[in-house]
Amino acid sequence: MLVADPRTAAAWRRFRQEFTDAGPERRREMLRERANQSRTTDLHMIGRAGLGHVGGDMSVLDILTTLFFSVLRVDPEKPEWADRDRFVLSKGHTAGALYTTLAAAGFFADAELETFAGPLSALNGHPNRVKVPGVETNTGPLGHGLPVSVGMAVAAKLSGSSRHVYVVLGDGELQEGSNWEAAMTAGHRRLDNLTAIVDRNRLQQGARTEETNTLDPLDDKFRAFGWDVLEVDGHDHLSLYDAFTAPRGDRPTCVIANTVKGRGVSFMEDRVEWHHKVPSTEQIVTATAELAR
């Protein structure tokens, strides 16, 4: 198991405090800069490894940054704290985005990112909970994250814990029936301590989601299963923050975050081939310059 980086964890705590004290525009700027720093790190990491899912990483990073740098009750130096909030990345193929976020928060040293997908590395192509602090459950086989998260939310209720469970889903994986069994159970049990976030970039491996299996009206589907639903711009950090921290009713919440695959890099945006295409050295230079603007 990797161990925390105390210096980076201390910087993360200072960031969280500054965010709490800041006004809206400063908050937006802080999260935007932090997310783009992670995007740049992710690009270089995938370029070194020669594999990854860069398009989905780019689309989900604003969601992950907002959660880890302003919302989640976690402690990078105490990853097993019993009452921590639980975070599950159901779309486990975007592990690169999670690893760059966890490293930036101090869950492990930034230098570990250089080993991504290498022999014997803890940072596999899909997250592993026995190797990486901050990973609550192994994911990769799509359709499993929401059912596991429902179980976590039920466990929190049974133990009387105040912890909240957040799970990020890919929109393509909602074509898996196990998600809807879990959604029905969450609605039935009125799991108000569960928030599902859909990374709605409308692309999956090889095609658009609506060409593969129609998902819309996605909001009405979740409401029919007994969920409260919010729909936001998945790249507007303050809209995400407001959705994640909004007062809860007595039902689970689904946040549909409308995103763009490859966000922040002009030649990647909304292009299906960047599901798992690896950028060249020249493309990384161009992308890094765009993200620095």
Secondary-structure map:
Blueprint lengths: L5 H16 L2 H26 L4 H18 L14 E4 L5 H11 L39 H15 L5 E6 L6 H13 L4 E7 L2 E2 L2 E2 H4 L5 H7 L3 E6 L3 H9 L7 E6 L22 H11 L2
Parallel strand pairs: 1-2, 2-3, 3-7, 6-7
Antiparallel strand pairs: 4-5
Q: Main beta sheet: strand number and arrangement?
A: 5 strands, parallel
CATH topology: Rossmann fold
CATH superfamily grouping? Thiamin diphosphate (ThDP)-binding fold, Pyr/PP domains
The top-level CATH class is Alpha Beta
Beta-strand share of residues: 5-15%
Overall spatial form: globular
Tally of separate domains: 1
How do the strands of the widest beta sheet line up side by side? 1-2-3-7-6
Q: What's the tally of helices?
A: 10
Average pLDDT for all residues: 97
> What's the architecture, going by CATH?
3-Layer(aba) Sandwich
- Beta strand count: 7
* Residues in helix, %: 40-55%
Domain Transketolase N-terminal: 34-275
Cofactor: thiamine diphosphate
Keywords: Thiamine pyrophosphate
Protein name: Transketolase
Can you tell me about this structure?
Belongs to the transketolase family. Residues 34-275 form the Transketolase N-terminal domain. This is Transketolase. The protein has 293 residues and is of the alpha/beta class. It has a single domain, classed as Thiamin diphosphate (ThDP)-binding fold, Pyr/PP domains (Rossmann fold, 3-Layer(aba) Sandwich), CATH 3.40.50. It has helices spanning 6-21, 24-49, 54-71, 95-105, 145-159, 177-189, 209-212, 218-224, 237-245, 281-291; strands spanning 86-89, 165-170, 194-200, 203-204, 207-208, 228-233, 253-258. The strands form 2 sheets. Strands 1-2-3-7-6 form a 5-stranded parallel β-sheet, sandwiched between helices. A two-stranded antiparallel sheet has the order 4-5. β2, α6 and β3 form a beta-alpha-beta unit. The longest helix is centred in the N-terminal third of the chain and has 26 residues, at 24-49.
